[in-house]
Amino acid sequence: MAPLDDDLAQHARAVAQTVRETLIEWQARRPATNEAAIAELLAYAFRDVTTDR
Asked: What backbone phi and psi angles, to 5 degrees, belong to 2?
């Protein structure tokens, strides 16, 4: 086992934070379907790993 490199660790933290924020938002605005929820989370994760937040 080896530690994550800095970039990968930063991406993992960003995605985890986005998931937490999204779950909080979903308490007030639920996704229409499970598929919509998955698509939303994947889009956010893609954004988090391809751009600087």
From this structure: -140, 150
Q: How many helices (H) and strands (E) does the chain have?
A: 2, 0
| Long-range CB contact pairs, 36-45, < 8 A, 24+ | 44/15, 44/18, 44/19, 45/15, 45/18
Average pLDDT over residues 39-52: 91
**Residue in the structure block whose two tokens are 């779950």:** 23
Pair 19, 41: CB distance under 8 Å: yes
* Residue 15, token pair as written in the block: 């995605």
52 pLDDT band, cuts 50/70/90, is low
| pLDDT at 30 exceeding the cut of 70 | yes
